[in-house]
Amino acid sequence: MKADNQLYNENCNTSKGDSEIDNVAVTPFESALSRLQCVLVARRTATNPEGVSWAQYDTLHFLRQFQPMIPSMIGEKLGFTRSKTSKILRSLKEKELIEQESGENDKRELVTRLSHKGLMFLQRAELSRHNMADIVASRMSQGEIAIFTELCNRASDLLYAETPVSHDD
């Protein structure tokens, strides 16, 4: 995998342009947060040749925990509309990351589960997360790791609480 700085430079253009947006003062905190976000997204992109979206990933992760499931239950638990759930599952099936078969009681309902390829995808994503954690942890003290963990959780909670939920397709 490419070095993080190379991923950052390729995916997070830091050059200044002539647009009005470039005239906005960016604090060191905003810059650091932006850089971290860019590196994380770049690393995710590098380990996601299937082009799995966040909603598709959430669906795969959820299926791994609770499979097999029917589409209506998946959508309900993840907060997706019926049409969004259908689009997500259709795309995952086209990528061969899930398998679907008619239900025993109701042949119209499709019982959905991870395919072997879907499980391998999730394991690769998990390995990438472990790798990132190992890289960062190997260069921090235990105290820094504890502080970083606390601050990441706090920032995530604050951002999650302020994130508007959209159920649009």
UniProtKB/TrEMBL annotation:
InterPro entries registered for this protein in UniProt: HTH_MarR-typ, MarR/SlyA-like, WH-like_DNA-bd_sf, WH_DNA-bd_sf
GO BP field: response to stress
Xref: SMART domains: HTH_MARR
Domain annotation HTH marR-type: ranges: 26-157
Gene3D superfamilies registered for this protein in UniProt: Winged helix-like DNA-binding domain superfamily/Winged helix DNA-binding domain (1.10.10.10)
Pfam families: MarR_2
GO molecular function: DNA-binding transcription factor activity
Protein name, per record: HTH marR-type domain-containing protein
Organism: Xenorhabdus bovienii str. kraussei Quebec
